[in-house]
Design brief:
Order of helices and strands: HHHEE
Strand content: under 5%
Radius of gyration: 29 Å
Shape: elongated
Low-confidence stretches: none
Mean pLDDT: 89
Helix content: 25-40%
Structural class: mainly alpha
Number of strands: 2
């Protein structure tokens, strides 16, 4: 894949970056070099290589996924200015 001046101008427009006409050719050359390097990376054989999520092999701490209400209803509602049973009450906003 090769980018020319028009491609760089369109990319700059889409990215909302102001690029002067004199900078288009050098930028196109630089972007082409980067794209060539990325294409070269695609040629590396990575079969059998595990994806890395960090440089140190470790597992994140895990806990069982259990839904609970916390069993602290009275503590939660203790500071409520107004409540009905186990619910907060709020002023009516819409008629």
């Amino acid at each position: 894949m090769s980018l020319d001046r028009d491609d760089v101008r369109k990319i700059a427009f889409l990215a909302r970056i102001k690029i002067e006409d004199a900078e288009l050719k050098p930028l196109a050359d630089e972007l082409n070099s980067i794209i060539g390097w990325v294409e070269q990376l695609g040629e590396v054989n990575t079969e059998g290589v595990q994806p890395m999520t960090s440089v140190a092999e470790m597992l994140a701490p895990q806990r069982p996924d259990q839904v609970t209400d916390g069993n602290v209803t009275q503590k939660v509602l203790a500071n409520a200015p107004d409540r009905v049973k186990n619910f907060y009450t709020v002023p009516k906003v819409l008629d």
